[in-house]
Amino acid sequence: MSMFKIRQKNPLVHCITNYVVANFTANGMLAIGASPVMADEMDEVQEMVSIANALLLNIGTLNQRTFEAMKLAGKKANELNIPVVLDPVGVGATKFRQKAVNEMLNSIKIQLIRCNAGELATIAGVNWHSKGVDSGEGSMDVASVAKQVAHQYNCLVIVTGAADFVTDGVNEEWVLGGNELMTQITGTGCLLSAICAATLTLEGDQLQNLQNVLADYKKVAENASKKKLLGSFQMEVINGIHEASIGGEQWT
Question: In angstroms, rounded to a whole number, what is the distance separating the alpha carbons of residues 186 and 182?
């Protein structure tokens, strides 16, 4: 139902994202009825975010130039009360990423951190074995740590995985379902972060809206996996998002 509401709202989402997923993210956002723009030039990001409804900061292919652009855009978004989503892709992989994420969390008001368990662990300072930009391996109470991070940065936190968890630091919800093929193609998590940014532009309870969109995305994954073919899965994800956004309460 939240995907249907996004189409009705048609928000402009400024995505400073990574070049691996930019095309898939843009197509996914168009499929859901949002308007994406991918602008990371420092001389225009403040102007661009000024006309946007939400901002996504995704560090997947971060470099010093895009880092500076993200900080400029984030601070301008804060001035204008535009919601900011941070996707700390592979934050545990290098010191550069850790420093960048730490600086953004402490200089920009982030409304939502959308991450996997490994990225959450790095942000929280929990011991974890990272594997590049993948989640890696480790042991922690995801719910407890996510709530701790939400309290620390006064934001919402979504941790995606076999089961998704969303919290505002007090209230919490688990979302079950999905399909593991989502982890075997590039960009599904990054697209979800952009969809979450669009979701923050909706009226109503933010936690509930995010829970609903996570449930929709899980259902999209389940439907897309029916052919069990990895090559067509990404296309079916786009199709599923489009169907969900036009189906309203009748979509299943």
Answer: 8
